[in-house]
Design a protein that fits this description.
Elements lengths: L5 E2 L3 E2 L12 E6 L5 E9 L2 E9 L5 E10 L3 E6 L5 E5 L3 E2 L2 E2 L3 E4 L23 E2 L5 E3 L5 E8 L5 E8 L12 E4 L5 E4 L5 E4 L4
Antiparallel strand pairs: 1-2, 3-4, 4-5, 5-6, 6-9, 7-8, 8-11, 9-10, 12-14, 13-14, 14-15, 15-16, 17-18
Length: 202
Amino acid sequence: VQIADIQYPTSFDSRFIPDYLYPRYATAAELPDGRLLVAERVLAAQKEVVKLVTLSPDGARLTQWPATFEGGPVSSLRLLDGGKVLAIGGFTNVSGLSRPGMVRLDPDGSVDAAFNPSQLGSGIIDLPFYGWPGSAATLPGGGLLTFIVTHSADGSDLWMLIKLQPNGETDPGFKPLTFEAGSNPKILPDTRGRILFSGFLK
């Protein structure tokens, strides 16, 4: 069993029987119409890539989105306003476009060219960015907060919180917050405009 629908409190939904996903799913998100958007690894032209497929509420495979992720997995899918989807992971490009670790997709599954975070941290961080972004939270007006991993002067890992503008560029007016690396921290905005963090941070 690779994916299942668990009802509250802990029973399996016997009506949800997903079609086989090759070779396993990476992450999933529910779309506004009840369909499930799932990332799966597939073989294309003798190499492994990631594709997004939709499943019906009962688990039947429906359509495959056009975007192709190369270079690594998709670890998170987040539904945005207007039916757009934010994908985060270890990929380096999407459908031939440089998108290291983060991409925004239009409702039809194509890459949103208006959002290009290809230079995460550019202009505010002197240390090299590596790995891929951590969790992200949307802000009023279309911006994003996200964690990236970088190195300190002594070579240890650091989580750095940065703000992205609606077009994906790093906001130079936001002072980054830096934490000693622990587990992947989560960003939890509340209804009063404050930002909460969870994870092992120092």
